[in-house]
Amino acid sequence: MNAKWRPFTDEIIYYWNKFFDHTAIKGFLAAGGTILNMIFGNMNAAMQGFLVLLAADYITGLIKASKKGKLSSWMSRKGWGKLATYSIVISLGHLITQIGMTGMRNFVLLWAGATEAISVLENFDDLGIVIPAFMREKLLNTKKNKFGEEIDK
């Protein structure tokens, strides 16, 4: 690391550690984690995969919008609405799993992950990133079935 930045980074690390030394902060973080765990369930592979795909969709969507010059707060709010809907559906899936229908949460996570994966592929296609022909064909079929229109290959 550049010696010029060393005092600055040392100071950030010092205050970061001091912040997390407070018992109240540790208590709030533990309570928040417990509440999230009660609402959405544990952090398993399905949840991790969904979160990675969600982040990839968000990032590729921002890149696509900025390249097209169409960054807007309206589209951002629409994205946050999608996130809220996913949160509700995942929490309901977790509740149904707790009631006794084993695997419902993971089913919901895999469905949401597949939806996000399709969105990431759409973003890649719009950005001009080459995707394999068989995936592009399936993507176009999905778009056709979803929107009911023919799309050029």
Question: How would you concisely characterize the structure shown here?
Answer:
With 153 residues, the chain is an all-alpha fold. It is 80% helix and 0% strand.
How would you describe this protein?
There is one protein chain. This protein is an all-alpha fold. It is built from six helices and no strands. α3 runs parallel beside α5. The mean pLDDT is 86.
Characteristics:
153 residues; mainly alpha; 6 helices
Q: Structural class, judged by helices and strands?
A: mainly alpha
The residue fraction in helices comes out at: over 70%
Count of all domains: 2
Provide the low-confidence segments as ranges: none
- Helix tally equals 6
- Termini, distance in Å? 49 Å
Largest sheet: none
Question: Tell me, what's the shape?
Answer: flat
- The strand count comes to 0
Can you give the mean pLDDT? 86
Oligomer category? single chain
Give the SSE order as H and E letters: HHHHHH
The fraction of residues assigned to DSSP E strands is: under 5%
Radius of gyration over alpha carbons?
A: 21 Å
